[in-house]
């Protein structure tokens, strides 16, 4: 029996953040801006504290060191990327799974724009600070998604495109809203993408991907392997 798309659940109202959680969040957001602008080596703990409008001692109290703060920032992005990646396999229907994956990746760009830039820079430089187990998880998740897309193609649910390059194209399209904000500003006239820009991006990328991978009618009739 074909798997149906998961039924959306009603979101519960989140409890108010404690002072500790609010301070940690302020520091992480400030650190994302500082590391994205200056890089790990040039970023200073005092400047991060100033951006967060908190004493420098608070940065050390919550994160102990600049290195640990940098890792916690990257961990937030890695966790979000892994969650977005897993969505691709949550439903055995590419018409649901691909849009869900696209929206989740754009949500990271919207929620953690500076931290996502830091993550991208870290990967471009060979991931010198990422623990090896994190890299292994990211590689394994990517392989699983390529295999998932390949299986959809074999079953005639998608057109016979290259699954690796389809995944890379989705990543490139969604990462544009983080890495190339200057290009977006040139086109939209906005310094930063707004909520409606991300919604338009999700709809446009989804339409291009689904239409571009739509199988021929005959391929849809291919029986499932026994």
UniProtKB/TrEMBL annotation:
One Pfam family in the UniProt entry: TetR_C_3
Source taxon at top rank: Bacteria
Keyword entries, A-Z: DNA-binding
GO molecular function, one term: DNA binding
GO biological process terms held by the UniProt record: negative regulation of DNA-templated transcription
Positions of the DNA-binding region: 44-63
InterPro entries assigned to the protein according to its UniProt record, in alphabetical order: Homeodomain-like_sf, HTH-type_TetR-like_transc_reg, HTH_TetR, Tet_transcr_reg_TetR-rel_C_sf, Tscrpt_reg_YcdC_C
Residue stretches making up the HTH tetR-type domain: 21-81
Protein name: TetR family transcriptional regulator
Organism, as annotated: Pseudomonas nicosulfuronedens
Taxonomic path: Bacteria, Pseudomonadati, Pseudomonadota, Gammaproteobacteria, Pseudomonadales
